[in-house]
Amino acid sequence: QQQQQQWRQERQHQQQQQQQQSQLPSQLQPQEQLTNSNSQSRSLSVVSTPAMSGHPSPLSRSYEDLADLSLIGCSKSLLLSRLAPGLKELHISENSLTSLQGLEHLKCLQYLDVSKNLLATIDSLAALLQMPSLTMLVVQDNPVCKIKSYRVKIWANFLAPHTVIDGVVATTSEMKKVVRMGDQKKSKKK
Fold this sequence. Notes:
This protein is of the alpha/beta class. About 30% of the residues lie in helices and about 10% in strands.
């Protein structure tokens, strides 16, 4: 009887583990287990592979305690609003994003990489306005970068001029343009 009971318990435990592992694609399971098994680690990195197509989004679960997250080439429709509000660093390049809508709740975010997406307008970056802690933004290789003085427009509309955009600090010339754009906005409001 004891053997049968022990066998049942082991079987139940195996079924529970299988059920938990089936929640993410097999390519992600080792990374997730590593993250969960190491209480010091607050990072998760997911890079898309062709074998992932048809699997649930890596964000089908909540990762509320993460500080750093990389989701590169994972999905055309990431559930951005489900990201952990305490994130400090976020890499979401190559996801065909057309807007940063859904990131407004990331008040602690310091570094954001949205390179190689489909961000085409300055307005598609409006969520940046809600990120007071942001110090570095990577937006290169997006259609928005073809807009003349795109960095100046981003600073003038959404970010503090000390924020580094695409690895470049604002030049004196760009700072003057930012100030002029701010003055023009103020005069339009009057």
